[in-house]
Amino acid sequence: MILGAISKTEFDIYRILQELSKTNPLFCSELEFQFYLAWKIKEIYGDDYKICIEHPLKSYEDRNRNIDLLLINNTGGYIPIELKYRKSRFEHNIGNYTYKLKDDFAIDQTRCKYLKDISRIEYFRETEKQFIAGYAIMITNQSRAWQKITNPQQTDYAFSLEDKTVINKGSKRWAETTAQCTKNDCPEVILKENYFIEWRDYCNFDKPNGLFRVLVAEIKKGE
């Protein structure tokens, strides 16, 4: 995983992901990603952070949701982390175990639900005064996730995660022609800030669907 300078003291999500890619280049599921990310944070930072898994987030869009990971530092500051692990079909043997990843198919839902994760952390920031920073992280081998949407009439055009672009704040909606069931599954997303999209390589097995990339959006505390 190619990264810039790595901090040795302050919380550094890229340092964590770099170390994670060495020990866990693949995961069976999003749940396994959640588990091993928490484990790696504990390995690196020890008792600097209490790690809460599936922390309740009440009344987000009138529904109770959970934050995948909530880190609490020694002064009571909060760092919420939301995770996505989206897959195209892929099989690879590591050691004595063969990973057989199934195809998640719906790239439009991948894009929409990642932005929804960002929105959820923005909501957490507004409701928790102990908020320090938050992160929405996605690892995927769905190559279309980081590619440009060339057709502006595509139903998920507003949710584009094209590499090296900026997602502007505001409302993100499905095209009018989108099936209602799709809209219901991932409703309109409203972002309070702009976000620069920068995909980085997580691991590469040099075969079809073997490139896994990671996208990190940092939600800052603000003024």
Q: How would you describe what is shown here?
A:
The protein is α+β, with helices and mostly antiparallel strands. The protein has one domain. It contains four helices and twelve strands, in the order ααβββββαβββαββββ. It has helices at 13-23, 30-45, 107-127, 180-185; strands at 49-60, 63-73, 78-86, 90-94, 97-101, 133-140, 165-167, 170-172, 189-191, 195-197, 199-204, 211-220. The strands form four sheets. Strands 1-2-3-6-12-11 form a six-stranded mixed β-sheet, sandwiched between helices. A hairpin with a 2-residue loop joins strand 4 (90-94) and strand 5. The two termini are 32 Å apart. Residues 2-9 have low confidence and may be disordered.
Which strand order do you get reading across the main beta sheet? Answer: 1-2-3-6-12-11
Got a strand count?
12
Q: How would you classify the helix and strand content by structural class?
A: alpha+beta
Mean pLDDT across every amino acid position: 92
How do the helices and strands follow one another from N- to C-terminus? HHEEEEEHEEEHEEEE
Q: How many discrete structural domains?
A: 1
Brief account:
The protein is α+β, with helices and mostly antiparallel strands and 223 residues long. It has helices at residues 13-23, 30-45, 107-127, 180-185, and strands spanning 49-60, 63-73, 78-86, 90-94, 97-101, 133-140, 165-167, 170-172, 189-191, 195-197, 199-204, 211-220. It is globular and about 50 Å long.
